[in-house]
Specification:
Helix content is about 60%, strand content about 5%. The chain is mainly alpha-helical. It has three domains: about 5-50, Arc Repressor Mutant, subunit A; about 70-110, Orthogonal Bundle (Arc Repressor Mutant, subunit A); about 125-225, no CATH class. It has a two-stranded antiparallel sheet. The radius of gyration is 20 Å and the shape is globular. It comes from Cryptotermes secundus. One of its GO terms (molecular function) is nucleic acid binding. This is Mos1 transposase HTH domain-containing protein.
Protein backbone atom coordinates (compact mmCIF):
# COMPACT_ATOMS: atom_id res chain seq x y z
CA UNK A 1 0.00 0.00 0.00
CA UNK A 2 1.35 3.41 -0.97
CA UNK A 3 1.30 6.39 1.37
CA UNK A 4 -1.25 8.03 -0.94
CA UNK A 5 -3.57 5.07 -0.38
CA UNK A 6 -3.02 5.21 3.38
CA UNK A 7 -4.07 8.85 3.47
CA UNK A 8 -7.11 8.16 1.32
CA UNK A 9 -8.18 5.41 3.72
CA UNK A 10 -7.81 7.88 6.59
CA UNK A 11 -9.92 10.46 4.73
CA UNK A 12 -12.55 7.80 4.08
CA UNK A 13 -12.50 6.85 7.76
CA UNK A 14 -12.93 10.47 8.89
CA UNK A 15 -15.79 11.05 6.47
CA UNK A 16 -17.56 7.88 7.64
CA UNK A 17 -17.29 9.08 11.25
CA UNK A 18 -18.95 12.36 10.34
CA UNK A 19 -15.88 14.60 10.57
CA UNK A 20 -16.10 17.83 8.58
CA UNK A 21 -13.63 18.68 5.83
CA UNK A 22 -11.82 21.05 8.18
CA UNK A 23 -11.56 18.38 10.89
CA UNK A 24 -10.38 15.82 8.35
CA UNK A 25 -7.68 18.14 7.01
CA UNK A 26 -6.47 18.84 10.54
CA UNK A 27 -6.28 15.14 11.40
CA UNK A 28 -4.47 14.21 8.17
CA UNK A 29 -1.93 16.98 8.73
CA UNK A 30 -1.41 15.93 12.36
CA UNK A 31 -0.92 12.30 11.37
CA UNK A 32 1.28 12.74 8.29
CA UNK A 33 2.96 16.10 8.90
CA UNK A 34 4.98 17.32 5.92
CA UNK A 35 3.90 14.25 3.94
CA UNK A 36 0.20 15.15 4.17
CA UNK A 37 -1.75 15.64 0.98
CA UNK A 38 -2.67 19.20 0.07
CA UNK A 39 -5.91 20.69 1.38
CA UNK A 40 -7.44 20.64 -2.10
CA UNK A 41 -6.64 16.94 -2.60
CA UNK A 42 -8.02 16.04 0.83
CA UNK A 43 -11.24 17.93 0.05
CA UNK A 44 -11.46 16.24 -3.36
CA UNK A 45 -11.24 12.73 -1.89
CA UNK A 46 -13.50 13.67 1.04
CA UNK A 47 -16.22 14.68 -1.42
CA UNK A 48 -15.72 11.51 -3.46
CA UNK A 49 -16.32 9.35 -0.40
CA UNK A 50 -19.24 11.55 0.67
CA UNK A 51 -20.82 10.96 -2.75
CA UNK A 52 -20.64 7.22 -2.23
CA UNK A 53 -17.26 6.24 -3.61
CA UNK A 54 -15.74 3.20 -1.87
CA UNK A 55 -12.44 2.61 -3.69
CA UNK A 56 -9.27 4.48 -2.73
CA UNK A 57 -7.61 3.66 -6.05
CA UNK A 58 -7.18 6.19 -8.83
CA UNK A 59 -9.56 5.92 -11.74
CA UNK A 60 -8.51 3.11 -14.12
CA UNK A 61 -7.24 4.22 -17.51
CA UNK A 62 -8.28 2.43 -20.68
CA UNK A 63 -5.67 1.19 -23.15
CA UNK A 64 -1.93 1.67 -22.88
CA UNK A 65 -0.60 4.63 -20.92
CA UNK A 66 -0.25 7.75 -23.00
CA UNK A 67 3.20 9.05 -23.82
CA UNK A 68 1.86 12.56 -24.36
CA UNK A 69 3.87 15.50 -23.08
CA UNK A 70 1.44 18.27 -23.92
CA UNK A 71 0.93 21.36 -21.79
CA UNK A 72 -2.08 19.87 -20.03
CA UNK A 73 -0.17 16.78 -18.88
CA UNK A 74 2.85 18.85 -17.87
CA UNK A 75 0.62 21.11 -15.77
CA UNK A 76 -1.00 18.09 -14.10
CA UNK A 77 2.43 16.75 -13.15
CA UNK A 78 3.49 20.16 -11.86
CA UNK A 79 0.34 20.50 -9.73
CA UNK A 80 0.65 17.03 -8.17
CA UNK A 81 4.34 17.50 -7.37
CA UNK A 82 3.71 20.90 -5.79
CA UNK A 83 0.99 19.32 -3.64
CA UNK A 84 3.18 16.40 -2.57
CA UNK A 85 6.91 16.60 -3.26
CA UNK A 86 7.36 13.02 -2.00
CA UNK A 87 5.04 11.52 -4.63
CA UNK A 88 6.74 8.85 -6.75
CA UNK A 89 7.09 8.75 -10.53
CA UNK A 90 4.92 5.62 -10.63
CA UNK A 91 2.18 7.29 -8.56
CA UNK A 92 2.24 10.28 -10.90
CA UNK A 93 1.96 8.01 -13.94
CA UNK A 94 -0.97 6.09 -12.42
CA UNK A 95 -2.75 9.25 -11.30
CA UNK A 96 -2.49 11.05 -14.64
CA UNK A 97 -2.62 8.02 -16.95
CA UNK A 98 0.65 8.47 -18.83
CA UNK A 99 3.72 6.29 -19.07
CA UNK A 100 6.44 6.30 -16.42
CA UNK A 101 8.93 7.36 -19.08
CA UNK A 102 6.82 10.38 -19.99
CA UNK A 103 6.54 11.45 -16.35
CA UNK A 104 10.30 11.13 -15.91
CA UNK A 105 10.92 13.22 -19.04
CA UNK A 106 8.44 15.87 -17.91
CA UNK A 107 10.06 16.11 -14.49
CA UNK A 108 13.65 16.29 -15.70
CA UNK A 109 13.29 18.10 -19.03
CA UNK A 110 10.12 20.21 -18.90
CA UNK A 111 9.99 21.04 -15.19
CA UNK A 112 13.76 20.78 -14.63
CA UNK A 113 13.37 18.88 -11.37
CA UNK A 114 15.33 16.16 -9.59
CA UNK A 115 15.03 14.14 -6.41
CA UNK A 116 16.97 15.23 -3.33
CA UNK A 117 16.37 13.32 -0.09
CA UNK A 118 13.26 11.67 -1.62
CA UNK A 119 11.71 15.04 -2.48
CA UNK A 120 11.30 16.62 -5.91
CA UNK A 121 13.10 19.96 -6.04
CA UNK A 122 14.16 22.36 -8.80
CA UNK A 123 17.09 20.83 -10.68
CA UNK A 124 18.92 24.15 -10.83
CA UNK A 125 19.09 26.64 -7.98
CA UNK A 126 19.19 30.35 -8.63
CA UNK A 127 22.25 32.28 -7.48
CA UNK A 128 20.16 33.87 -4.71
CA UNK A 129 19.03 30.46 -3.46
CA UNK A 130 22.59 29.15 -3.48
CA UNK A 131 23.82 32.21 -1.61
CA UNK A 132 21.16 31.79 1.06
CA UNK A 133 21.96 28.10 1.53
CA UNK A 134 25.66 28.92 1.68
CA UNK A 135 25.16 31.69 4.26
CA UNK A 136 23.03 29.53 6.56
CA UNK A 137 25.43 26.58 6.33
CA UNK A 138 28.44 28.83 6.98
CA UNK A 139 26.73 30.47 9.97
CA UNK A 140 25.88 27.08 11.47
CA UNK A 141 29.40 25.82 10.86
CA UNK A 142 30.95 28.92 12.42
CA UNK A 143 28.78 28.48 15.52
CA UNK A 144 29.76 24.82 15.81
CA UNK A 145 33.46 25.61 15.40
CA UNK A 146 33.41 28.39 17.99
CA UNK A 147 31.29 26.46 20.49
CA UNK A 148 32.02 22.71 20.95
CA UNK A 149 28.67 22.32 22.71
CA UNK A 150 26.67 24.02 19.96
CA UNK A 151 25.02 20.82 18.70
CA UNK A 152 24.32 19.70 22.27
CA UNK A 153 22.29 22.85 22.90
CA UNK A 154 19.89 22.16 20.03
CA UNK A 155 16.47 20.86 21.00
CA UNK A 156 15.24 20.05 17.49
CA UNK A 157 16.45 20.24 13.94
CA UNK A 158 13.05 20.31 12.30
CA UNK A 159 13.22 23.67 10.56
CA UNK A 160 12.35 23.42 6.88
CA UNK A 161 15.19 24.67 4.72
CA UNK A 162 14.02 26.50 1.63
CA UNK A 163 15.17 24.39 -1.34
CA UNK A 164 17.12 22.28 1.12
CA UNK A 165 15.75 18.81 2.01
CA UNK A 166 19.37 17.67 1.85
CA UNK A 167 20.06 20.00 4.79
CA UNK A 168 17.03 19.29 7.02
CA UNK A 169 17.50 16.34 9.45
CA UNK A 170 13.82 15.42 9.31
CA UNK A 171 13.98 15.13 5.52
CA UNK A 172 17.32 13.40 5.00
CA UNK A 173 17.17 11.14 8.07
CA UNK A 174 14.19 11.04 10.46
CA UNK A 175 11.15 10.74 8.17
CA UNK A 176 12.67 8.06 5.88
CA UNK A 177 13.80 6.10 8.96
CA UNK A 178 10.43 6.41 10.68
CA UNK A 179 8.59 5.23 7.56
CA UNK A 180 10.33 1.84 7.53
CA UNK A 181 8.31 0.19 10.36
CA UNK A 182 5.06 1.86 9.19
CA UNK A 183 5.25 1.15 5.46
CA UNK A 184 2.60 -1.15 4.06
CA UNK A 185 0.46 -1.08 7.21
CA UNK A 186 -3.18 -0.05 7.16
CA UNK A 187 -4.17 1.97 10.21
CA UNK A 188 -7.78 2.13 11.36
CA UNK A 189 -7.65 5.47 13.17
CA UNK A 190 -5.53 8.57 13.74
CA UNK A 191 -4.80 7.35 17.25
CA UNK A 192 -3.50 4.09 15.80
CA UNK A 193 -1.19 6.02 13.48
CA UNK A 194 0.10 8.22 16.31
CA UNK A 195 0.64 5.23 18.58
CA UNK A 196 2.60 3.27 15.97
CA UNK A 197 4.61 6.30 14.86
CA UNK A 198 5.48 7.07 18.48
CA UNK A 199 6.48 3.46 19.02
CA UNK A 200 8.71 3.58 15.97
CA UNK A 201 10.28 6.80 17.20
CA UNK A 202 11.04 5.30 20.60
CA UNK A 203 12.84 2.34 19.04
CA UNK A 204 15.40 4.60 17.35
CA UNK A 205 18.48 4.41 19.60
CA UNK A 206 19.98 7.54 21.14
CA UNK A 207 23.30 7.09 19.35
CA UNK A 208 21.45 7.14 16.01
CA UNK A 209 20.21 10.65 16.79
CA UNK A 210 23.74 11.65 17.78
CA UNK A 211 25.09 10.33 14.48
CA UNK A 212 22.38 12.28 12.66
CA UNK A 213 23.57 15.55 14.19
CA UNK A 214 27.17 14.63 13.37
CA UNK A 215 26.07 14.04 9.78
CA UNK A 216 24.25 17.36 9.83
CA UNK A 217 27.52 19.13 10.56
CA UNK A 218 29.18 17.29 7.65
CA UNK A 219 26.31 18.46 5.46
CA UNK A 220 27.03 22.09 6.35
CA UNK A 221 30.62 21.50 5.25
CA UNK A 222 29.42 19.95 1.99
CA UNK A 223 27.08 22.85 1.33
CA UNK A 224 29.96 25.29 1.82
CA UNK A 225 32.23 23.13 -0.37
CA UNK A 226 29.65 23.09 -3.18
CA UNK A 227 29.00 26.81 -2.76
CA UNK A 228 25.35 26.35 -1.83
CA UNK A 229 24.45 23.86 -4.56
CA UNK A 230 22.64 20.59 -3.93
CA UNK A 231 24.56 17.56 -2.78
CA UNK A 232 23.64 14.00 -1.84
CA UNK A 233 24.53 12.20 1.38
CA UNK A 234 27.27 9.64 1.87
Amino acid sequence: MTEQHEQRYCIKFCQKLGDTQVETIRKIQQAFGDDAMSNSRIKEWYNRFKDGRTSVDSEPRSGRPSTSRNENVIEQVRTLVMEDRRITVRELANEIGVSIGSVHSILTEDLCMRRVSVKFVPKLLTMEQKQRRLKIAQDMLDNANSNPNFLNTMITGDELWVYGPDMAPCDFWLFPKLKIPLKGTRFESREDIVRNATGGLITIPKDAFQKCFQQWRKDWEKCVHYQGDYFEGD
